[in-house]
Amino acid sequence: MKFRNKMLCVFAAITVLATGGITVHAALEQRLQHIQNELAGQMQTIRLLNNSILGQYFAYINQQIISVLSTRAELREQTQILTHYVENYATNDADLIAFLQGQQDSFNQVGKDLMLLKDNEILIAPKSSSVLQGRSMGGKTLLSSVRADYNQLVDGYYLMLFSPERKKDNFLSFSHVIGANDNYVICVLQNIDNLIAYYSADSQSILPQLNETFEELQNNLSGTAAIINAQDGNLILATADDAKQTLAKLDLKALFKPEALNKNVELTSQSGEKFFACASYFKPLDWYILIYRDEQSVIAPALTQAKTSLLIGLAVLALAVLLAFLMSGRLTSSLNLIAQKADEIARVNLSDPKAIAAATSSLAGKGNDEVASVGRALALMGRSISDNLQKLIAANQQKDRMQGELKAASAIQEGMLPQSSELPQSSFFSCDAFLLPAKEVGGDLYDVQRLNDEELAIIIGDVSDKGVPAALFMSTTLSLARCALGLGFSPQKTMELINNRLSERNPNMMFVTMYIMVLNEKTGQYKACNAGHCYPIIIGRDGLQELDTISGPAVGPLSGMEYAEYAGVLNINETLLLYTDGVSEAQNDKREFFGTERILQVLEKRYGRPCEETLQAVVDAVASFRGDYQQTDDITLVCCQRR
């Protein structure tokens, strides 16, 4: 009963905490979401207002552009009339100048002017002399434009010229070639001071339309919209009558900073009131457009929603606690049974299926509720643990058998390869060998075999694979080599025999790189054959020599391959070192290879040194280079020396 009461209290506390936490979190999320929605609406409104002002501004600008286009058309038409008259009625320069001077007087009365050039010489200068000092937006003057673009004037050329003061005597010119054979150019100019004044009219021209827009916003906008002149900070237009007083209390400079534009910014007035504001800059009119709203009007609806959510959450919480007390009795008894059975399962022998079945039999009850599911899951878990334990025991037994077989295979392989103490030695010859497989069994092979009283066969090889398959292939290769050399075959014939026999049944296309040398220990003369193996190195009195003659490809994949042998002399006190690519291709943790150069560096000063010392020096250098990095290939070395 005490346990039941404790369970009830714990369950009720968990329910209260969980439900209360969820309710409070939901209320806070609703409050935050409401504020974010209101601020997003504020930014959307200011974008719409900005677009509305932009549309009205462009409508105003379009009217001015139409006036400019009309002036351009009028200039072209008047120039064409003058050109037609001159080309058809002017018989000489005097007539032409007299006619155009009369036209110039008429033009001057209506704000126009005229200029005539011949071969870049001014025959009639404009009455408004400031025209010649005026420059276009691109920096051109009237004369520089005409002279530079003379060939393009046949179809007419417009140029807008502004006086240095940019206040008066601003002209739009149209130039045209008249009488192309005599190189006449006529320019008609129109004073555009009135156009410029109209074009640069102040913002008062579009304010009447904006008043209508702001009147509509006043009835529908939550907050206040305003337009402020960026130059003097004066209020131009607002949707609220008290906007001027409110804005005077706010730090608008913080709102109008470039990094704050088009963002929601929180401002505090001098009296401590908080506002959410958003502003944008309308560059054509040098205006700031802003919308602001006091914090209370944004947060109050959110608080109302949060209170509603809290009331609903409290009602749900009360219902949950009631249901918890009603269900706790059944839940407690079922959990007691599950706890007892779990303790019983923990005490039985998990490797005994019968004991597990007896302990879990009463847990597989009926019912679809969560407690019944937990009971069935516990029963299933007990049986699963027992089954897995049986499988684990069987797997360990199988692993032990495999380990034993690998150890046996390794012992057999070691038995096939001669130990250092078994290698032939004499007063003329000494040798030593070293092999370190990458796995339990390897694919490298070596042998030093005495053929007769004077000759020895030196063999080293590397099978393409690793592990047991490589070990089997290696044993076959070594047996064939020993047999052929024992029958008196030369290194060349031995290599051909091994290749042909291995290729007969080699479905996996395995191959062996090999080196075979037959050495006369008394004379030092040798014959050798290399089947794609690493070059042997001779340590002589005068330095190191790599026997870099390749006699043929690796043995095994294809029958009928041809091999050649070469001969040489191993002098007294010279040492021969043979190795597999497990030495040269040993890697460190930086994925760098040990390489042939490092082997040569180790052997540089080892002339006349005993074979075992030379081998140990190479092995130590490789181990130091590799460090803790994993060995990836078998390492094999054979060292021979004439005494």
Q: What this model shows, in words?
A:
- α1 packs across α8 and α10 (370-416) packs parallel to α11.
- The protein is built from 15 helices and 20 strands.
- It is an alpha+beta fold and 643 residues long.
- It is flat.
Features:
643 residues; alpha+beta; 5-stranded antiparallel β-sheet; 20 strands; 49% helix
Topology:
Blueprint: H1 2-89, H2 93-108, E1 112-118, E2 121-124, H3 142-148, E3 157-161, E4 171-178, E5 184-191, H4 193-199, H5 207-220, E6 224-229, E7 235-238, H6 243-248, H7 252-255, E8 264-268, E9 274-282, E10 287-294, H8 295-347, H9 353-360, H10 370-416, E11 429-436, E12 444-450, E13 455-463, H11 467-486, H12 491-504, E14 512-520, E15 525-531, E16 537-540, E17 543-546, E18 566-569, E19 575-579, H13 581-584, H14 595-603, H15 611-626, E20 635-642
Antiparallel strand pairs: 1-2, 1-5, 3-4, 4-5, 6-7, 6-10, 8-9, 9-10, 11-20, 12-13, 13-14, 14-15, 15-18, 16-17, 16-19, 19-20
Helix pairs in contact: 1-8, 8-10, 9-10, 10-11, 11-12
Q: Hey, roughly how much beta strand do the residues contain? A: 15-25%
CA gyration radius, whole angstroms: 52 Å
What is the average of the pLDDT values?
80
Q: How many helix segments? A: 15
**Order of strands in the sheet with most strands:** 2-1-5-4-3
Question: Which outline best applies?
Answer: flat
Helix proportion range: 40-55%
Major sheet size, sense and barrel closure = 5 strands, antiparallel
Low-pLDDT stretches are none
Strands, count: 20
Based on secondary structure, the structural category is alpha+beta
CA(first)-CA(last) distance: 97 Å
Organism: Candidatus Anaerobiospirillum merdipullorum
Pfam families: SpoIIE
Domain PPM-type phosphatase: 426-642
Protein name: SpoIIE family protein phosphatase
